Amino acid sequence: MGPAQQPTYPDPVAVDAAVSRLRTQPPLVFAGECDELTEKIGAVARGEAFLLQGGDCAETFAGVTADNVRNKLRVILQMAVVLTYAASVPVVKVGRLAGQYAKPRSSDFETRGSGDHEVTLPAYRGDAVNGFEFTPEARAHDPQRLVDVYNASAATLNLVRAFVTGGYADLRQVHAWNTDFVKESAAGQQYEAMANDIERALTFMQAIGADPDEFHRVDFHSSHEALVLEYEHAMTRIDSRTQAPYDVSGHFVWIGERTRQLDGAHVELLSHIKNPIGVKLGPTTTPDDALALAEKLNPHNIPGRLTFITRFGAGRIRDGLPTLIEKVTAAGVQVAWVCDPMHGNTFEASSGYKTRRFDDVIDEVQGFFDVHRSLGTWPGGVHVELTGDDVTECVGGGELLDEAGLADRYESVCDPRLNRVQSLELAFLVAKMLRA
Ligand code: PEP
Ligand code: MN
User: Fold this and answer.
1) In which pathway does it act (predicted)?
2) Model pTM?
3) Given its phi and psi angles, is residue 332 left (phi above 0), alpha (psi -120 to 50 degrees) or beta?
């Protein structure tokens, strides 16, 4: 059997053409930037910083617009400021963006309709592989899309870099980020009060002549699941400075729950690159699995190199996580523990929409904190699927979105994301857990 979750391309010549094209493209990120992120995640592993990783389940090519990217960035900046201010910990900011275009699927096929009208087509695997539209043409696997991923990622990262260094991320903008619908929500009001405090502190700092660079820009990093091997491999380069290989398609890449087999191709590839990397760990992960992954992926036990992103589900985390953390900690393994409270809590609403309950998401994060607190280990961060828009994909939260409301604005092409208000609410709740 070949590597898991790979596209099946009909034409090997077209694959070669796409791969050679990718090989000649300039890097999207620099090796030095990846090393800096490893350092920062090292602080997370030591319990000195908190990781905030968020963005779409699946980015789309159509979603590469200035508004969309800015909105996503804005909500992450707001969340980061809430966490930093309310909990007084440095926050490492990582977007699930500029490369998050490939999706693992539980089934290779999707069937729609019934009886004589039943149609079965290849499942949508993300814009990196095929189109979302339910037609045979769109659903065919096309390697040219890998080149499109590169271009879409370059455009997104260019915008992000301009936003975070060009004044948009200046702390003086803390009020300006809280615009339109979010401002009216309870979380928005809470944010407004906090922004007033920050504003006062900034004015004070300015009056005494302190104006550090950190007030004017933020460090922001890109990340995605390293899924399509042709793409990640073609984007792996030897760094001229250190002679070490880096996957220059993003700062941080992770291995999904479905591709983390110890002897699998994804683990093998990521074991050879020097980027900071993550592995998703679901509820079936044994301590031995985790230890073997750590040994293979971080043999020198460098803090910040490896992040374990647990995604157990709200109902299983309190029972399942303690043994895993205990054994990994007892073995002296350096790892940043991050909670993905989304992927273990997905269910299908009666209307057919894939959704998640806001309360389950919060409950899993609370369970994550409870377990770490009781073991004396550090709850290092959260990994969430979110958008900067007012979508209706997850139920609950302060706006009390119910299942019937899902149809209003369900835009995700894959998993349900927290909308902007829900994301801000989550940030305030996590800040409270961090303070406790
Ligand atoms: C995802 O992050 O979108 C995903 C598919 O997660 P997991 O590998 O944890 O299922
Ligand atoms: Mn997802």
Assistant:
1) Metabolic intermediate biosynthesis; chorismate biosynthesis; chorismate from D-erythrose 4-phosphate and phosphoenolpyruvate: step 1/7
2) 0.98
3) left
Per the CB < 8 A criterion, the answer to whether 408 and 392 are in contact is yes
3-state secondary structure of 310: strand
Label the pairing between strands 119-122 and 336-339. unpaired
Q: Which of 122, 124, 73, 70 is nearest to 95 (CA)?
A: 73
Q: Are 271 and 56 in contact (CB under 8 A)?
A: no
What's the mean pLDDT when you consider all of the chain? 96
pLDDT number for residue 240? 94
- Which among 368, 385, 269, 364 is positioned nearest to 315, based on CA atoms? 364
Q: How far is the CA of 343 from the centre of ligand 2 (A)?
A: 6
pLDDT at 79: 97
- Give the burial class of 244: count Cβ atoms within 10 A of its Cβ; 0-12 exposed, 13-18 middle, 19 or more buried: middle
pLDDT digits over 250-298, tens only?
A: 999 999 999 999 999 999 999 999 999 999 999 999 999 999 999 999 9
Q: CB atoms < 10 A from the CB of 235, how many?
A: 27
Question: For residue 74, how far is its CA from the centre of ligand 2 (angstroms)?
Answer: 21
Distance set, CA 141 to CA 9, 223, 287, 330 (Å): 6, 23, 37, 45
ipTM: 0.99
Q: How confident is the model at residue 36 (pLDDT cuts 50, 70, 90)?
A: very high
256 lines ligand 1 (CB under 6 A): yes
pLDDT at 307 over 80: yes
pLDDT recorded at residue 179: 85
pLDDT-derived band at 314 (thresholds 50, 70, 90) equals very high
Q: Tell me the sheet residues that pair with 236.
A: 247
Task: State the DSSP string of 16-54.
Answer: HHHHHHHHHSPPSS-HHHHHHHHHHHHHHHTTS-EEEEE
Indicate the residue type of 415. Answer: D
User: Ligand 1 center to residue 57 CA distance, Å?
Assistant: 8
Q: Which residue pairs, CB below 8 angstroms and at least 24 apart, start in 185-191?
A: 185/398, 185/399, 185/421, 185/424, 186/398, 186/425, 187/398, 187/421, 187/424, 187/425, 187/428, 188/421, 188/424, 190/428, 191/78, 191/82, 191/424, 191/428
Tokens linked to 111: 């069937």
Q: Are 386 and 397 in contact (CB under 8 A)?
A: no
Q: What was the pLDDT predicted at 181?
A: 81
Residue 1 pLDDT more than 80?
Answer: no
Only one residue has tokens 């043999």, namely: 299
